[in-house]
Amino acid sequence: MGKVVMYGSVSVDGFVADENDQPGPLFDWLSGGDVPLDGSGALKVSQKSYDYVRPYWDRIGVTIAGRHVFDLTDGWDGKPPSGIDNVVVVTHRPAPVGWDPAAPFHFVDGVEAAVVKAQELAGDRLVEVAAGDVGGQVLAAGLVDEVRMDVVPVVFGSGKRYFGSVDAQHLLEDPDVVIHGNRVLHLRYRVLR
Fold first, then answer.
1. Transmembrane residues, as ranges (predicted)?
2. For position 67, which CATH number holds?
3. Total domains in the fold of the chain
4. Measured between alpha carbons, how far is 144 from 97 in angstroms, rounded to an integer?
5. What is the pLDDT of residues 130-156, one digit of tens each?
6. Considering the entire predicted model, what is its pTM?
């Protein structure tokens, strides 16, 4: 089974979006370099960021996201982001009316069921869990193997927390990756069990 990785860009004070679900400058690093990150040409990062992010993205088989993120992005128009094969959406509601059942999106109730479905779909590839409430729930359930953060030099003061509403302590190992890109610090931690 593939490793479960919680991932997202985050402010220095721990937020993935402001109170209005806006990411502000959290993704500016994705256009702050001169190396194309994907085939669209829209994403250009520093060489250091490319060398870290591209191999990671290439290993992701499935992304798990919450229904809130799904709705905010209009379901990515039925196409998983960043070339991901499948998206598992954690929700208590069915797929939206008129949703194309052939789209590679799977709607499940609960984070444990989401991880099971995602690992089934991913095989030996990575399962990525979007940071925020759902990511925090997966961490709290003891199902996250690794935490990756793209820390951006901005302070939000309030907003949507990287770990959601996790209310218990979870220990991580010392970071085994620390990479300084343009306007971003990439960190990787393994979760202690």
1. none
2. 3.40.430.10
3. 1
4. 32
5. 999 999 999 999 999 999 999 999 999
6. 0.94
